[in-house]
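Budget justification aside, the reviewers requested a transparent look at the raw inputs and outputs of the sequence design task funded under Objective 1. We therefore reproduce one unedited record. The lines immediately below are the structure tokens for a 312-residue chain.
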């Protein structure tokens, strides 16, 4: 007499189906997070980037939990004589392969864009401090060396010297001038050791290795609001070009992006032209070009005395 099948029947496929469903949710979260950070606007203070990061993290957690659960459940089912079919195995392998391809570049780009958003915020903070300085100094931004506490007629030779004049009244933290992995900056953040009292020729305040930002001297709070005021330091300040190697001066964003803050304190992360390695845009000329040029001064753009100066 035949015995009833009992436990010898094939176990239900619900666990495998649930695992595949969860892996589908994981893939959806990861793809959505990837799209979010690719389309995020860093000018929103990094909010979009944080949302993208949370989606990616959520996807990774769901994937890890699902994978662990599926492995354990599969082991139990296997001991009950059920072996996952080829379709299930292929789907799982495909999902793992896709995630392995998406995760490394996603997290790398997310990290860089987060750093850019933070650096942009800091550069705009410096510009706001300069406007406060100008309100106390006849509208003038710091552009000259000092003697007896008064500006001379000698232009600053580097941006560190100009920015040092903001301390301690308008700026109290050197960290906003430092950008991680910049060729202009030391490996560690500034030591926050400053000249006290302030010196006309700074020694400790914004010493070499503590400042990333180039500066356009000679502007005022009534200058053309569209002209550049602060930007990432250049590989060559004479030609206003950037470098493509991140370890080089002027290459912190690998020759792809640059942070530019205008005279009205508005700022953006802009693209660098791959052919010229310059930031191109409206510059008072008949066609877009190098925004740091002084060749279009007759049209209300930068004047010959507004030649950009690099960090130390």
């Amino acid at each position: 007499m035949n015995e009833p099948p009992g436990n010898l029947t094939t176990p239900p496929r619900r666990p495998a189906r649930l695992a595949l469903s969860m892996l589908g949710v994981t893939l959806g979260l990861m793809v959505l997070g990837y799209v979010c950070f690719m389309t995020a606007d860093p000018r929103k203070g990094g909010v979009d980037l944080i949302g993208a990061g949370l989606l990616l993290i959520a996807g990774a957690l769901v994937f890890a939990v699902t994978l662990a659960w599926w492995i354990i459940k599969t082991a139990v089912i296997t001991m009950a004589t059920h072996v996952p079919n080829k379709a299930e195995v292929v789907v799982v392998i495909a999902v793992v392969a896709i995630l392995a391809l998406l995760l490394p570049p996603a997290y790398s780009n997310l990290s860089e864009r987060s750093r850019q958003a933070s650096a942009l915020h800091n550069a705009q903070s410096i510009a706001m401090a300069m406007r406060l300085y100008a309100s106390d100094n006849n509208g003038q931004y710091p552009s000259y060396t000092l003697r007896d506490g008064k500006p001379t007629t000698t232009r600053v030779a580097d941006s560190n010297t100009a920015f040092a004049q903001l301390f301690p009244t308008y700026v109290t933290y050197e960290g906003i001038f430092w950008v991680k992995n910049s060729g202009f900056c030391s490996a560690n953040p500034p030591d926050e050791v400053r000249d006290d009292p302030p010196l006309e020729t700074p020694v400790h305040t914004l010493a070499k290795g503590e400042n990333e930002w180039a500066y356009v001297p000679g502007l005022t709070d009534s200058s053309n609001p569209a002209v550049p005021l602060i930007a990432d330091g250049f590989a060559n300040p004479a030609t206003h070009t950037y470098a493509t190697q991140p370890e080089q001066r002027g290459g912190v964003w690998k020759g792809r992006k640059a942070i530019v803050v205008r005279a009205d304190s508005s700022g953006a992360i802009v693209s660098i032209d791959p052919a010229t390695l310059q930031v191109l845009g409206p510059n008072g000329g008949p066609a877009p070009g190098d925004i740091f040029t002084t060749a279009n001064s007759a049209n209300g753009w930068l004047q010959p005395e507004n030649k950009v100066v690099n960090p130390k």
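DSSP finds four helices and eight strands in the chain. The longest strand covers residues 150-155. Computational costs for records of this kind are itemized in the attached budget.
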